[in-house]
Amino acid sequence: VPKFELEVKNAKEAGANILRTVSLGGRRYEIFRTPEAFLEFKKNATLAIQLAEPIVRKYQVKLGIENHKDWLASELAATLKQLSSEWVGATLDFGNNIALLQEPMDVVQTLAPYVLSVHIKDMAVEEYEAGFRLSEVPLGQGILDLPNMIALCKKHNPNVTFNLEMITRDPLEIPCLTNDYWATFEDVSGNELARILQMVRKNKYKTALPKFSQLSLDERLAAEEQNIIQSFAYWKK
User: Fold this and answer.
1) Residue-wise DSSP of the chain
2) Which tens digit of pLDDT belongs to each residue from 203-235?
3) How much is the pTM?
């Protein structure tokens, strides 16, 4: 707690009024192999949020907890509702929870009442033998209903901040047709899996999903720059 308080104090002095954090650094389906392991994480993460709240309240800085391929939207919403603090809410990532088999608009509808800031992105998908691949693509080139998602966030929080997260990387593989993936998803139904796979098949990307690992560093930087410029152009339009 003292280390966290110092970080909040420094951020406040630097001019920040919204901080973003995550409860888990990795991806739920890659880290946890038993339901018990996930429940232990959930207990500790909830305690950490409870310990953080008095600190951010003291410094009048808001803390946005990201849905970082760890929390189902309903799990994070329930935690924030129970905490019931104006100083702790959500950093709502528009694309992350597709990896947890949740439809993007459902995620926004669930978390928008708690939104403080947004990781705005657009996503593209394609099938592979163990599930589907997921990629960030420039805004307007993917499958997300960005205008309605943005409008819903602004409706719940007119002061919400939008932060472009245009990650330029190889596609993530979401192995949702393997046994290991399901270790912590007892509450996710076959219907939800079917809906996501239907979405993937219906929205096949115009080409193969872009890959960047084979490029030189300069080429990767140029590709990232171009993706960011295209995203800003979409936003301005």
Assistant:
1) -HHHHHHHHHHHHHT-SEEEE-S-SS-HHHH--SHHHHHHHHHHHHHHHHHHHHHHHHHT-EEEEE--SSS-HHHHHHHHHHH--TTEEEEEESSGGGGGT--HHHHHHHHGGGEEEEEE-EEEEEEETTEEEEEEE-TTSSS--HHHHHHHHHHH-TT-EEEE----SPPEEE-TTSTGGGGG-TTS-HHHHHHHHHHHHHTB-SSSPP--TTS-HHHHHHHHHHHHHHHHHHHH-
2) 999 899 999 999 999 999 999 999 999 999 999
3) 0.95
